[in-house]
Here is the input.
Amino acid sequence: MDTPDILVRAVGTALPGPAIDNATLTQRFGMPVAWEQWIDTFVGTRTRHFAVDLDTGEVRHSLTGLGETASRRALDRAGLAPADIDLMVLATSSPDMLMPATVNLIADRLGINGIATYQLQSGCAGAVQALDITSHLLRSGRHRNALVIGGDTCAKHFDVTVDAASLPPAEQVNGMLFGDGVGAAVLGVGPAPDTAVLRHAFVQFVGLGRAPGQIIEWSGRADRHNDRPPVVEDYKAIEESVPVLAAEALRQVLDDLDWKDTELDYLLPPQLSGRMTARIVEALDVPQAHEISCVTEIGNTGNALPFFQLERALPRMGTGDRAVGVAIESSKWIKAGFALEMV
Amino acid sequence: MNTIDDFITLLRDEMGMPVSAGDAALSLDQVAGWDSVHVLSLLSVLERRTGRSLPLADVLEAGSLEDIYRLAVAA
Here is the structure.
């Protein structure tokens, strides 16, 4: 059976508000200068964007709105109209509401009706999960043009009135690491020249018996006043495990495609923070591949990150160029990887 | 905070660190659980207590808890 190429026709992204640098964050929350120095030294992320106005706490952007913006940009670049889309998949850990699912609100904003829509509840592996599932749905022949979206906003977790100095240090670190953003890709069915082909995508849960490395709680009316911290990150487990899992995921993609290390032109590594990503890239040991990273500029935007990386990678890829992206989700430990080839 | 013992008490009470006076002279890599997040926490605690902001670079050069104490109380 002849399976068609799955094409990544175009990518678009959206970031809310201005870039917030470490000095601004430090001053806004009344922290000592050494706090800013600590971010520069141990995190290495320089700026990030927030859907929340830092001064007033007003929520200025929603996942829906950012998703619409990113989607329109991707569609414009693909030379398509919303009416050409017959499948939408959104991956997020932070939907605007549980119901209606944000993917349907974005469809509404785009003026799209009568199509299949799916939404994934996901962390850092979400973008790859969405690409993977979409590629299978396209190959089934039931659809031709898909909008795949990934993004997160921490608006529901970000209390700008909090006394940051009184927060446990681990929660302070969360505030330094994360940022808001959404990315979207238009996927289609080939063949088509001068277009990136999605050669492979895989997702693998490896969290059996492992304590979660990341927990995000949600609450309803009955348990809204609980004492549980809304976001918990086990930084030690993340530092120990993510580089190992990233190396395994890269190896798996290369082996599945029978690509040699030396044939890799672009590497899209896990985007945790400037420092962690640098450490991971070193451990991955593919020095001839150009690294495509964005986390030092936009922070950890979870489900959006691979789209921001793709947006940077695609214009640089020439005919025959090969790229591999790796995403590791530390919530319950999920390995994910994907590969592109420009034909 | 007047003495090294006050400093040790501060670490125990405000940061929950299981340290005693005997740990003050130990090299930091021998202090149980000491990591970069502890440095972050310590900077905030010391700034609140002493009213002065310690430069991170100086704290990172400290070899022991006693070294950090001396930085914090330096005139």
In short: Chain B touches chain A at residues 35-41, 43-44, 47-48, 53-57, 59-60 (CB under 8 Å). Chain B has one domain: 4-73. Chain B has a mean pLDDT of 86. The radius of gyration of chain B is 11 Å.
